[in-house]
Amino acid sequence: MSRWDHAQVQRKVINNDNGGQPLVCCWDDCTRPGYECFKHISCEHDVRNMSCSYADRQALAHSGRTAHTNYVFCTQRHRNYWVNATGGNAHESIARTGRAYGNLPVGMRRMIG
Q1: Which of 2, 54, 65, 92 has the greatest number of beta carbons closer than 10 A?
Q2: What is the pTM of this model?
Q3: What are phi and psi of 40, to 5 degrees?
Q4: Which residue ranges make up each domain of the chain?
Q5: Is the pLDDT of residue 2 over 60?
Q6: In the chain, where do the E strands start and end?
């Protein structure tokens, strides 16, 4: 009996402003490189009131940057830690455990990777 593992294509995220060096994982004190497949895009605007493209145009005109921030991580687990420590997930985590940072979402505590 043979076992087939699916290929996982990972590309490091390169920072051209830093001489072409790869970006480092955004989780806590991790020093591994971040990969494109574990990227998280954070909206810094209320998505109920305006579209992302409109918010980007407005923010670019007023502040010189877009209304979104990209974060890269080395694994899906580190990305899940980050997503759970922000926004409404953080409030729910504080109510449940007393802290927002360093918890995986419910149902992912035994996740590997």
Answers
A1: 92
A2: 0.75
A3: -125, 125
A4: 14-97
A5: no
A6: 14-15, 21-22, 35-43, 68-73
pLDDT tens, position by position, 28-49 = 889 999 999 999 999 888 888 8
Report residue 55 as tokens.
Answer: 């918010």
Q: What is the pLDDT of residue 55?
A: 94
β-strands 35-43, 21-22: how paired?
unpaired
Token representation of residue 85: 């420590």
φ/ψ region of 28 (left if φ > 0, alpha if ψ in -120 to 50, else beta) reads: left
In terms of phi and psi (left: phi > 0; alpha: psi -120 to 50; beta: otherwise), the region of 12 is beta
Distance CA 76, CA 13 (A): 15
Please name which of 108, 19, 36, 112 lies closest in space to residue 74, comparing C-alpha atoms. Answer: 36
